[in-house]
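User: Working on a comparison across species. This one is LysR-family transcriptional regulator from Proteus mirabilis. Can you predict its structure so I can line it up against the others?
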Amino acid sequence: MDTRLLNAFVVLADTGHFGEASKQLCISQPALTKQIKTLESQLDIVLFERGRHGAKLTQEGQYLLNQAQVVLRESHILEKQARQLVEPQKVSLYAGFGLSSLSFITSLLAKFNQIEPNISVNIDDMSSHKMEEKLLMGELDVAFSRLPVMPPLQGIALTQEQLMLAIATQHITVLEADYNPLHYFDSLGLILLAPEKGKKLYQQIHAFLQQHKLAPRLLQQSQDIQTQLALVAAGLGIALVPKSAQLICDKQRVTLLPLSGLYTQWKIGVIWNSNIKNKERDLFIKIITEKIDIK
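Assistant: Here's the predicted structure for LysR-family transcriptional regulator from Proteus mirabilis:
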């Protein structure tokens, strides 16, 4: 039996009017009349009483209405299940990212979506330490964060990050290429990111200061890099930030000077928990590391 005829029967029974039912079905009124007559002929039953006030179900029509609704519902389920057998289901992955991956994360995901549209990737901004915690707990499938990581986490490098000295442009005295910006630590206090907000960055900055025998005057600890940069822009001190901070700083008022030597560079990569099996995640990693250039 043609389910279109059953659908016409159900819609007409619901509206009680050929004109309204034909609008809902996006067909002409004569076409609807023909469908109802065809169904009545196949069933050898009169389903509606026609009159000036519309169409009213007969006793037989009322009896068959519920069964017609059941058949339509089961038909829709059958169609959906059939599509699922031949069409891949859209899968969602959950990824963490931070400031260091901000420059490439959106374009990378857009390119991935073009290659694999049936896998969607939901992203959330958080610290590298928090990403690792969530990966270990299975709350994230992948993360874009600093390397190296400890097992069972694994990672593949995608790009490199660099430590920079953020200073108010008004405080810069010399800009020669060979000038050593460490001089500013002698005269300007340091605005530091709170360790709980960036544990690994805090540890790296501490190692950098020790390596270069620097003991700057600590002015305050901020809760995020944006606040650090705002305080620097106001001329209240200097800060050590990743190069990617240039994406969010006021370039007219803040200058980022590159630092060299140990503890000034680190790799940013895609990270996952190798103890958790996930074929869609593995496909995502394979595509972004082998088929997509993030530069």
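For your comparison, note: The radius of gyration is 32 Å.

User: Helpful, thanks.
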